[in-house]
Design a protein that fits this description.
By secondary structure, the protein is of the alpha+beta class. It contains two helices and ten strands. A hairpin with a 4-residue loop joins strand 5 and strand 6.
């Protein structure tokens, strides 16, 4: 008994560390207290701004260009076209399921750029009809969901594929703009500069 009491006294003495009340701050308590302090400081910096303006995707308007006919599209068979410049390759595809930004009677016709947003890998010929995805990119296996504005499903990319903004007039399909930044371009501009 005496030996156990001596061990307890030594442990109490070793954990004193000169703190008030002779208590040691455990690592867990330090992390919890520090985390709470950082959270309070961060929240203090956020001010109530009332009704904030909604966020909108980066969209560039370009000259309207005819790219196809609704009646000519077959579900799952993409058609390639160049827009907004002759060197920028895109696909127009009827997904056969409603999609974000889709046009046509079923809102299932979409168009996307065919260059991976991670490192510019080509996505030509990588459309998968059964999953409505584009990819995987041959460089780092990024895959994009065409039903959800080209968002990343898997892989290294952190940005969605640029989506071509479409309009339909009767049976005609027009490209009118680009949502997102095409890989290799510094900005979305209507007139390309040399």
């Amino acid at each position: 008994m005496k030996e156990t009491h001596g061990l307890q006294a030594r442990n109490d003495r070793d954990h004193d560390h000169g703190l008030p009340g002779g208590h040691c701050v455990s690592r867990r308590r330090l992390l919890l207290t520090g985390g709470a302090a950082v959270t309070l400081i961060a929240l203090n910096g956020i001010q109530d701004r009332g009704d904030a303006a909604p966020l909108h995707a980066l969209k560039a308007d370009y000259p309207r260009q005819g790219i196809g006919k609704v009646s000519a599209l077959r579900p799952g068979s993409p058609i390639e076209f160049a827009y907004p410049y002759a060197t920028v390759s895109n696909i127009l595809v009827k997904l056969d399921v409603p999609a974000g930004g889709g046009v046509g009677p079923a809102q299932d016709i979409v168009a996307f750029n065919q260059v991976c947003t991670h490192m510019g890998g080509p996505l030509h010929g990588s459309y998968k009809k059964e999953h409505q995805i584009l990819g995987p990119c041959q460089l780092h296996l990024t895959t994009f969901d065409l039903t959800r504005h080209g968002m990343v499903v898997s892989g290294h990319a952190t940005e969605s594929l640029p989506q071509i903004v479409l309009e339909t007039v009767g049976d005609d399909i027009y490209a009118v703009g680009v949502m997102g930044l095409v890989y290799g371009y510094a900005a979305n501009v209507a007139a390309r500069r040399a």
